[in-house]
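From: lab user (bench 3)
To: helpdesk
Subject: output format question, protein + manganese (II) ion

Hello, I'm new to running complex predictions and I'm not sure whether the block I got back is the full result or only part of it. Here's what I submitted:
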Amino acid sequence: MNGGALVLHGGSVQTRSNDTEFRFRPDSDFYYLTGLVEPGAVFVFRPGHDPESTLFVRPRDAEAEVWSGRRKGPQGVVDEGRAEQAFDVAQLKQELPRLLEGASTVYIPLGRARSVERSVLSAVQLLRRRNRDGQRAPESLTHVEALLGPERLVKDEAAIEDLRRAVEISSLAHMDAMRFCRPDRFEYEIEAIMDCRFRMAGSTGPGYTSIVGGGDNATILHYVENSSRLQGGDLLLIDAGCEWEQFTGDITRTFPVNGTFSGAQRELYQLVLAANVAAIEQCRVGASINGIHRDCVARLAQGLLDLGLLQGSLDEIIENKQYRRYYMHRTSHWLGADVHDVGPYTVDQVDVPLAPGHALTIEPGLYVAAGDTEAPAAFRGIGIRIEDDVLVREDGPEVLSHAVPKAIDELEAIVGSADAITFG
Ligand SMILES: [Mn+2]
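Helpdesk reply: Thanks, we reran it on our side. This is the complete output you should expect:
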C-alpha cells in the first residue's frame, strides 16, 4: 500500500418497504478483510503503524438488541481478533484524522459509501488545516478496487473451498430443478425447489436473483419475474447459484420442459454446447478472457452461418458484430464473492493472463427472439445459455460445476424423472 491507508464501510441494512428490511449482507471487500458481519461498521487499516487495524462498530445496547439483534460491541470485535483496536462508531469523526495522518493516499470505495467518503474528506480537510502544526494530510484518494481487485482475483485455498461448496450446492439445486420440471408447472415452482435446496444446505440463499425462463422468456437475459406456466415443447433456461460464506455459484442450464429436444432446439443447443466445451478447454494458464471470448464468438458466428441464421462471410459478421443479434453478452466474467467479481480484465490495455487461482465463468449463449421475423421460423423463441464455473489450475481447468448434466442424452434422461424432491 506504499504508505497508504484503507477505509472500508461494512454496509448498511437496506429498507425493503416502509419499516421492513432485507437481511443484512456485508460489503464484499469489508468481509474479505475482517470476516465481520455488522451493519454500519467501519474498518481502517494502516500497515506499518501501531496498531495497524481499527474497527468502528455500534456499541452494545441491551434495548436495541432486543429489537434488532445482537451486537458485538468494540470489546467484542477485538476479543474475536477482527482488529487490534475498536471504538464506538460515533467516535469515527473524532478518531479518523489521527488514523489517516501522514498517509500518502487513502483507499476508499469511491461512490459506494457516501458516509465514508464524507468522513474521510472531513478528516483530510482537518489535517490540511493542521498542517501548520506539522500534521500531514493524505494527498489523494484511490479507488479501493485498485488494491483489492487484483488481491481478490487470486483465490487462496480457503476461498477455493468456499467457492467449491457454493457451486456444489448450486449444482444439486440445478439437478433438483431438472428432475422436478414438467409441462404446466410454473417457473416460480422450479425457483422454489432451488431456493429450498439452497437453504436446506445451509446457504444464505441465492447469490443473485435466479433467472427461470421458459420458452421466449429465455431470450430476455435478465428475466427474473419467473411467473409463467411452462409449456411442453419449450426449453427452460435456469441461471441460478447460491451463496456460501460470501462466495457464489453461477450456473446456467437449458433443457426441454417435456424432456425431449425438438430438431431446431437440438441444432442450436449443440452449437452452444460445443462453444462451451471448447472455451472451457482454453481456460489454461496464460490464456485470457478476451482471447477466449474472441474464439467463442468465431465459433458461434460460424454455427449461425451454417444454420442459416446469418448470411455473408464469417469475417464480415465478426467485423460488423452481426452475431450480436443472437449473442449479445460476453463469454466470461470473474467469479467470487460478487457474482461478477472484482479484478481487472486488462492492465495497461493488455489482457490479464489467466493464472492459478483465477475463477471464472464460461457462458456462451444464443437467443432468437420470438418476434424476430428475419430468423428462420423454427428457431424463433429459443434462448439457450450453458454456463459453468471454472477454476484455473497449474495443470489445466477444473470445472467446479461438472456434476450438472449438459449433454443432450443426459438432460433427456434426468428431466421430469422425479415427482417430488426430498431434502434429507
Ligand atoms: Mn454468469
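A quick orientation on your result: The chain has twelve helices and 21 strands. Let us know if anything else is unclear.
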